[in-house]
Amino acid sequence: MVYVKWGLRAIFWIAVLAFLHYTLPQHDIARITDTYEKRVNPGENALFWSNAATGENVNATERDVFFIQTFLTDDDPMIYRNEDTGWGWPPYFKFDTANLQAEASDHLSKKSAEAAQWVAIRHYGWRNEFLSIYPNAISLWAVEGPEARIVPWFNIVVLTLLAAAWWAIRVRWNRFWERRGQPEGGEWREAAE
Amino acid sequence: MIALLRLLIFGGIALGVVYLGLSWYFRAAHRERMERDWEAAGRPGNREAYVAEGMAQYARSLRRRLLWLVFVLPVTAVGLIVWITNFN
Q1: Cβ–Cβ gap B86/A138 under 8 Å
Q2: Tell me, what's the pLDDT at A191?
Q3: Structural domain boundaries of chain B?
Q4: Cβ separation of B81 and A93 shorter than 8 Å?
């Protein structure tokens, strides 16, 4: 039973961490080498594609998606999709996909370039080759060089608030059940004694 | 527009549940504090009247009204995120 209990707890916490890791924004320093548009046909991986109803028909099974092709500072390729999240989940309220694509194509910088142009890319999501899923780029801006560091203030604040809320509820929950477990006395106790 | 409507409706419901839950919890906590106060003050007069007086004060207090932040803060946050993501 102990193993089951700890197993369930582990699954729960792994799910929570995975959810946060997928949803919260992260920043990459990268060099954009190309931007393109590709027809996608989400199937089993549909969960990892956003299909925000920002005006167009959401029932179409195929659609064109913008992509941003980059190399990270360790020279590994990273491909971002560039999709609206609209009013849906995750709550980035992104509607400026086409504008972002224009900004991305304005920062192209190939390996052969004399002075490489590095950009910070804010994104959420995961890259997985087996599932054909891509992180969604939220915004990007030029940075000095590959050593640029971005302090994740937003994540610090959100995680602190989440931890505080979890702690506040947990403390009250425990206190509630402790009080229940220890009757203050009264006629039932007297009768038992 | 359907997506915006969905967000408004379900977000409103979720915030309403949070608001009602918190307001119930804070009121219960305040009542308990009033009851303890009454005993600490040497049981002056009627207990019910003492607690009712305390609850009436609480209903008018700033602390009670701050609970509207449950609605104000998320709506402000959404507005801020829309601006930062799209227009900044």
Answers
A1: no
A2: 47
A3: 2-18+43-87
A4: yes
